[in-house]
Amino acid sequence: MSPRSARLARLSRSVTFSACHRLHSKSLSDEENLKLFGKCNNPNGHGHNYKARLLSSLLVSLQIDPVSGMVMNLTDLKEYMQEAIMEPLDHKNLDKDVTYFAEVVSTTENVAVFIWENLQRLLPPGILYKVKVHETDQNVVVYKGEEAMAG
Fold first, then answer.
1. Which CDD domains does the protein's record reference (predicted)?
2. pLDDT (tens digit, 9 = 90+) per residue, 15-35?
3. How far apart are CA 127 and CA 119, in angstroms?
4. Among 109, 133, 134, 145, which is least packed, fewest CB within 10 Å?
5. Which tens digit of pLDDT belongs to each residue from 53-76?
6. Domain 12-143 has CATH 3.30.479.10
């Protein structure tokens, strides 16, 4: 394959942010919340050092540019992640400081959806492939956008 042939690549970048939250559903009683969420339902909340990783899509639009040698400028990607993830989430109480979580339980699943939606608004169309959020080393959520469940 000649150096000028189209080469495809996926680009990944991670950020780490700290935030606190309380797992609590307004649809459940206090007793039901405590039973469902246990110590994570602590009225004063609890915190995590989340790690969010995004992976770009493998699409024709993500060909390695023969001139720059890049799929996407990492400086631009860093700025998008700063705006979509760090500014709204880092050192925040998710339930009190982030409007999105006023009506949505701040599970890691929903944090991943929040990040996906924010990044989708900033990135060029078709770039984002998946968002991976590590709540802990053992608890990880992967979100790839709205996917229909197989019947």
1. PTPS (cd00470)
2. 999 999 999 999 999 999 999
3. 10
4. 145
5. 887 654 445 678 888 888 888 898
6. yes
